[in-house]
Write a structure and sequence with these properties.
This protein is mainly α and 263 residues long. The protein is 71% helix and 2% strand. It is elongated and about 60 Å long.
Length: 263
């Protein structure tokens, strides 16, 4: 999973398979789904979750965390994940710099989404085979870091609201379009592995969530150019930053719960 939205989507899929809302919990921190159901319900739940593009492997009683699957151990698959990490984090930094030059808060917020996705994937690569406690500790640090970045962009957006400036619409649109292309390119290295692992197939479904943010930046750029005002940029920035902070909070919350369960 690359954000709390994915975790919520998986929970809803399990509920659609007949699981009570209080009987399923998906941790955005450790990527573990906990179910309080009978053994006979699991096949139906697996089918429901499969509709999201995700699958799951059962953790035997007494295990402290999920073992790495054969796909996860595949060197080519790991190499593909590293490419995805560098694309997300690398372009996130580029887009953040572009946001400062363009004076666009929407670009900065979208850049956070790129950096956040890259860091979560990075944690997933590092944490393969780690214990639940260490996965939760790593996620906690990451969640706090992402939250600080999110609050920084939000605070800067408020400052821009009080000191109205018009961003460079051309730069906004150009880098928003590049961001959309990068999202597509980031999926390509995982294509050879899409049949071997349900989690890889999910990239296709959830990459559209990221594309919505990219499209919003492009639309905001068009409105800024058309109206000659900076408010569309600020509206999009607040929306993206809000979603980002929600994901960061979900990671911190789940990490705390997982740490309590592991100790």
């Amino acid at each position: 999973m690359d954000c709390a939205r994915d975790a919520a989507e998986i929970e809803r899929a399990a509920q659609s398979a007949g699981v009570a809302p209080k009987a399923v919990k998906v941790s955005a921190a450790t990527h573990i789904m906990t179910l309080w159901v009978s053994e006979s319900q699991l096949p139906e739940i697996e089918l429901g979750v499969a509709k999201t593009g995700y699958g799951f492997e059962r953790i035997a009683p007494g295990d402290d965390g999920p073992a790495a699957s054969q796909t996860q151990k595949n060197p080519e698959y790991l190499r593909a994940l590293w490419i995805v990490i560098f694309l997300n984090v690398g372009y996130g930094i580029v887009e953040m710099i572009a946001g400062f030059f363009a004076g666009s808060q929407a670009l900065k917020a979208d850049a956070l989404d790129f950096v956040g996705d890259g860091l979560i994937t990075f944690l997933g690569v590092l944490a393969i085979g780690w214990s639940l406690a260490w996965r939760a500790r790593s996620a906690m640090i990451q969640g706090v870091f992402l939250a600080l970045l999110g609050f920084g962009v939000l605070a800067n957006t408020v400052w821009r609201l009080l000191n109205q400036t018009i961003p460079d619409a051309a730069l906004m649109g150009m880098f928003g379009l590049i961001a959309l292309v990068i999202n597509v390119i980031a999926v390509l290295p995982l294509l050879p592995h899409r049949k071997g692992d349900a989690n890889v197939r999910a990239v296709w479904l959830f990459s559209r969530n990221d594309a919505i943010g990219n499209a919003a930046v492009i639309v905001a750029a068009g409105l800024v150019a058309w109206l000659g005002h900076g408010w569309p940029d600020l509206v999009v920035a607040v929306g993206i930053a809000g979603l980002f902070l929600h994901s960061a909070w979900a990671i911190i919350r789940d990490a705390r719960n997982d740490l309590r369960a592991a100790i």
